[in-house]
């Protein structure tokens, strides 16, 4: 789900928007691959990412003049970790660390988005998490298949390994789903991940998209692709590509404090509203905007990112520093982040 970093790079290598003449460039992109630093078990290891990012910026600022002209104001970085450039999956520690100071002038393309949050930089471009397009398309079932499941969810309710006390993970929202609805016949919820997961989503009316460690989840992409009305449980979430996807019209938003009332909320929705949301979800352009296909296709997530970058142009002269001027502090941040990669 962090692979947008890799696929964005692949897309740009062959895109007609790319120039090999840096003097013609509106934007500079540095592929750092911080999300490819994994534990032996294959889990993301974001804690060392600031060291890797600092080393990459040190490299480009030492070898070429372009970073130094603006201290990164005309550069963008893809940072698809849980809390973006705060580089931690636990919110308290992400907030404590803050956005890497060297990225303060750059534009961040990130999956994380939450209003009024330390880890959301103004001007960031929020993107969907990566979900494999070919794999999902290979599991499509006939469109006329009845939606016989009212509410569907598969995933963790408690992350015991990282939250042994319980209640901190997902700010308790997922635990509330389990405690209140595990025996409710309208709710098909479980920690099991069946081989029919994608098919089951296509048989469901509502798909729960609760926050986990961070507000976003791949379920958001999967729900849109499979025409399942996303029930978004993540207070103040900033959703991707709001100009291409009318989230308020296709989804349901439930406050974290109201999870215990999910059954009442969802059964109270008029049938006409459900059918309208399903018709909107069937629009191919909305599905396209959520995916990173290879090769790229018109209107896909790559092109939505380009639209976001284009809206931030032109860079006026104020982004260029005077000779010898410095704004960013290279030695700012936790001591551990300052170690060379």
TrEMBL record:
<dbReference type="GO" id="GO:0010417">
    <property type="term" value="P:glucuronoxylan biosynthetic process"/>
</dbReference>
<dbReference type="InterPro" id="IPR004263">
    <property type="entry name" value="Exostosin"/>
</dbReference>
<protein>
    <submittedName>
        <fullName>Probable beta-1,4-xylosyltransferase IRX10L isoform X2</fullName>
    </submittedName>
</protein>
<dbReference type="GO" id="GO:0047517">
    <property type="term" value="F:1,4-beta-D-xylan synthase activity"/>
</dbReference>
<comment type="similarity">
    <text>Belongs to the glycosyltransferase 47 family.</text>
</comment>
<dbReference type="InterPro" id="IPR040911">
    <property type="entry name" value="Exostosin_GT47"/>
</dbReference>
<dbReference type="GO" id="GO:0000139">
    <property type="term" value="C:Golgi membrane"/>
</dbReference>
<dbReference type="GO" id="GO:0009834">
    <property type="term" value="P:plant-type secondary cell wall biogenesis"/>
</dbReference>
<keyword id="KW-0735">Signal-anchor</keyword>
<dbReference type="GO" id="GO:0080116">
    <property type="term" value="F:glucuronoxylan glucuronosyltransferase activity"/>
</dbReference>
<keyword id="KW-0808">Transferase</keyword>
<feature type="domain" description="Exostosin GT47">
    <location>
        <begin position="2"/>
        <end position="269"/>
    </location>
</feature>
<keyword id="KW-0328">Glycosyltransferase</keyword>
<keyword id="KW-0333">Golgi apparatus</keyword>
<keyword id="KW-0812">Transmembrane</keyword>
<dbReference type="Pfam" id="PF03016">
    <property type="entry name" value="Exostosin_GT47"/>
</dbReference>
